[in-house]
Automatic annotation (TrEMBL):
It comes from the Eukaryota. This is FAD dependent oxidoreductase domain-containing protein. GO terms for cellular component: cytoplasm. InterPro entries: FAD-dep_OxRdtase, FAD/NAD-bd_sf. It comes from Talaromyces pinophilus.
Length: 684
């Protein structure tokens, strides 16, 4: 995909949007245009923006945990008319296929936990449906992943075997490697193999509607056809927000962004982290009286090799329609078209794309038994009933201020059996539990987000009158110190799964990383009157991060992740930057401590690169920069002793290196979030 997709953001299309299979089937349902109160309330405790599955289930959990809180759910259009109401109806846990990609990004341990979490999530969804008698056309049975090319079969087998060798649970996955048997089981002519495990299909709108109706009974206020157009800080209450809508303003204490692909339209810090991108879903209705068509059972993932996938959802408990989704070979032409029409990235009015419909037609006629002999199934027109939905894409390789800011990851990561879902303490004197530490984690995430919004985003409606950035930084620093002072002790029943919320070292890392983010804007701005104290704080924070990562990785089987790599790299660059730009920092550190800290960072990066090829460019860049910096430190010592150093010589020394260093960084593909730390190194 091109750059347009990762620069786009916008609001949902108000009129003439496409109608999905699910939305078409519930036309006339009063919940679609429901407003709990005729007038929009002017205040609330929590405002949730978005009424899809995310917003609906968040409202459910809030109503359960804090029944006394006033909750408003805003929906720009009809209830659940976004991505949830437009998907292909699968509730399918990935049990092995994504393992290699997850392992590359998050490491082996976390990759296994991600797939385990998918299974746990599916189990709980099915349990909820059954226990609450949810009428959502639910079906559970075998889902089949079927590679239909030799290359796809090879990739599938390699992935499955690597997952199994890493300790992944595979006892419940039925594997058929004989092509003839696989074709018989799957009813796919060119099946090379077949992987089967339990999954579900359902009517997503009806599931969300069941939950929302219960929410409304418990006091949640749903307001459809109400667009949130801006979020600003309250003029009257510093700790509150004002959600501005076309129907009036709502003042509240908390705002939850649950509009997924559209979230970046309202929240600038999500731009580049969550990006809208359209996908198509096609509906095919076979003749009911035909006896020649293959009997598709369950749900399917047709693996075509490369990155292409066709999903199939036969509506076994529905109306008999067959839904085709995924990313088929026709998607490539669609991407090219979007590059030329970037404004369509947020447009769900599209009712089909020729190359996508054509790819489905070709697959069905060639691979599905009996479809080539049925006259109606041979016609391309049969495959052109489609609708569009907007996905919220996440870039795993985000850098700088977006690092560690959680938008949606915790929703899937919090499971009942890990004791994170529960009631928070009502008094500081109560014994801390896992929820206590989870909430404390969210607080530092909010502070990081505030730093990004206030210090690194362009001015927006949040700012009123004269803005005092120096005072704002002081206030944020005070809140960071307060957060650190209030870190709860580790509960005695902390489990391994909750290591994120129970490790003291992790809290120290978060504290020091937040300090670096708070002051980065100051230390890279040569016009700012940055005090020695700020440089000292950055040096101490960077030293601590480098030492901590060396301790975590040296001689231990710690998984390497993008978060760890970027956090360490940022700390290392900040440290070098301070040595170049602050004479006081150079004197305070001295050659010995500076050399030790550089070695800490290098050792950690070397270990990371040995375990993960993606870390190699970062290792090479930092080694080059550290060597030059230590040479500079050595030269400064000699020059200081001889009393023969001039500002012109100092400036030339840095400028000669700067061009080469920037080229190293650019050639390695490191994003521009670090450029400021490099461009300022020659200024004193």
């Amino acid at each position: 995909m091109g750059q347009h997709a990762f620069q786009n953001f916008g609001f949902p299309k108000r009129d003439n949007y496409s109608i999905s299979h699910w939305l078409q089937s519930v036309q006339g349902d009063p919940l679609l245009n429901h407003r709990t109160t005729a007038e929009l309330p002017r205040s609330a405790d929590i405002v949730i923006i978005g009424s899809g599955m995310t917003g609906t289930t968040i409202a459910q959990n809030v109503a359960k945990t804090w029944p006394e809180k006033k909750v408003i759910v805003l929906e720009a259009r009809q209830f659940c008319s976004g991505a949830t109401g437009r998907n292909a109806g699968h509730c399918k846990p990935d049990q092995w296929r994504g393992f290699i990609d997850y392992e590359k990004v998050f490491g082996t341990e976390q990759a296994l936990k991600i797939l385990q979490n998918e299974q746990q999530t599916w189990v709980q969804v099915v349990q909820f449906i059954k226990e609450n008698n949810v009428d959502c056309e639910h079906w559970s049975g075998d889902t089949l992943d079927v590679p239909i090319t030799p290359r796809a079969a090879k990739i599938a087998k390699e992935t499955f075997e690597k997952y199994k060798a890493a300790g992944g649970k595979v006892d419940h996955i039925k594997v058929t490697e004989d092509p003839e048997k696989a074709a018989q089981i799957s009813q796919i002519k060119d099946a090379q193999a077949c992987y089967a495990w339990s999954a579900s299909t359902l009517h997503p709108w009806k599931l969300a509607a069941h939950i929302m109706r219960d929410n409304i009974k418990k006091g949640v206020n749903l307001q459809t056809n109400t667009v949130a157009i801006a979020i600003i800080q309250s003029k009257n209450h510093r700790d509150k927000w004002v959600v501005k809508t076309e129907r009036g303003d709502i003042e509240c204490s908390e705002v939850v962004h649950a509009s997924n692909a559209y979230s970046s339209a309202l929240e600038p810090s999500l731009r580049g982290l969550i990006t809208p991108c359209p996908h198509m879903c096609n509906k095919v209705v076979p003749p009911k009286d035909s006896k020649n068509l293959s009997s598709l059972k369950g749900s399917y993932g047709i693996l075509l090799g490369q990155d292409n996938l066709i999903t199939i959802n036969p509506r076994l408990n529905g109306d008999g329609a067959i839904l085709f989704g995924g990313s088929n070979p026709g998607q490539d032409d669609f991407w090219e078209w979007l590059e030329k029409n970037p404004y369509r990235y947020i447009d769900d009015s599209m009712t089909g794309f020729n190359s996508i419909s054509k790819a489905i037609h070709e697959f069905a006629v060639e691979e599905l038994k009996g479809w080539s002999t049925e006259d109606i199934m041979r016609q391309e027109e049969t495959y052109k009933h489609a609708w569009s939905g907007i996905l919220g894409l996440t870039d795993f390789h985000s850098l700088g201020n977006y690092l560690d800011f959680q938008a949606s990851g915790f929703v899937l990561g919090i499971m009942d059996n890990t004791e994170l879902v529960g009631t928070p303490r009502t008094s500081p004197s109560d014994a801390p539990n896992n929820m206590t530490r989870a909430i404390h984690t969210f607080r530092i995430r909010r502070l990081l987000n505030r730093i990004h919004t206030h210090l690194y985003s362009k001015p927006d409606l949040r700012c009123f009158g004269k803005y005092d950035q120096k005072l704002d930084v002081q206030n944020i620093r005070a809140e960071i110190e307060k957060w650190r002072a209030e870190i709860p002790p580790t509960p005695s029943n902390a489990s391994e799964e909750l290591v994120l919320f129970t490790t003291e070292d992790w809290y120290d890392l978060e504290y020091n990383y937040t300090i670096l983010q708070l002051y980065r804007a100051q230390i890279i701005d040569h016009r700012a009157e940055t005090t020695d104290g700020v440089f000292f704080d950055c040096v101490r924070a960077a030293e601590s991060i480098c030492q901590s990562y060396r301790s975590q990785f040296l001689g231990k089987r710690t998984s390497c992740t993008w978060t760890a790599l970027h956090e360490l790299f940022l700390a290392g660059l900040t440290y070098l930057h301070c040595l170049w730009t602050s004479p006081a920092a150079r004197v305070a550190c001295g050659y010995g401590k500076a050399n030790a800290t550089c070695n800490d960072c290098i050792i950690a990066l070397v270990v990371m690169a040995e375990r993960w090829d993606a870390a190699a460019p970062y290792r090479e860049i930092f080694i080059a920069l550290a060597n030059r910096t230590m040479s500079m430190m050595s030269d400064r010592i000699v020059e200081s002793a001889s009393g023969n150093v001039t500002s012109a010589e100092s400036e030339n020394y840095g400028k000669e290196d700067l061009t080469e260093w920037m080229k190293i960084v650019a050639d390695a593909g490191v994003l521009q979030g670090y450029n400021g730390l490099l461009t300022g190194i020659t200024r004193e």
